[in-house]
Amino acid sequence: MDIRTGFFYLFSALLLFAAFRVITARNPVYAALFLVLAFFQASAIWLLLKAEFLAITLVLVYVGAVMVLFLFVVMMLDIDVDSLRAGFWKHFPIAATVGVLIALEMAAVLMGGFRMGEEPRAVPAAAQATGQAVAQYSNTKELGKLLYSQYLYPLEVAAVILLVAIIAAIALTLRKRKDSKYTDPSQQVRVHARDRLHVIKLPPTAAARVETKA
Length: 214
Fold this sequence. Notes:
Elements: H1 3-24, H2 28-48, H3 52-76, H4 81-84, H5 92-113, H6 125-130, H7 139-147, H8 152-174, H9 185-189, H10 193-196
Helix pairs in contact: 1-2, 2-3
């Protein structure tokens, strides 16, 4: 076993441990931190697979943006952990069955293309024709070409789905609630003093009441 295979098993073991702690940690903040650790281990595995662009994107997008925002939300909200874990063991058999099926499907897909030894990286035909060296081959450039040529329509569909999700989130946030008071700023600008203030005339003096004891 070479050093690359050893690092693969190390990162994989840490990834599985962090993923297990995400669903078993009692504190939501700890669960989010273990999820950050899982993202870092997945990024390290992608680096071993020579997918540097995907590894850096995972760190920048998920760890640097999504998880930081998630941590802020979790720490600002008062989450009742006991109520969230109330139905855990009730739905555990179904969740465990689905998890095992997903793991078996992923194992069946990955084990077919898994190789213990290092395989030579494929070089584009254009690079072979021009005698371009493998060191000058950019997998990020080839990924961009493949993404915006062969997978252009799935990319556009994913962009539309994300746009719909953003619009739905904004609509749910800005909707009017019946139990909250709302003031129209335009009505405040057009208001007159006579609409808000009523002057009541009272006599300047009034006779004092004399209380008599029975």
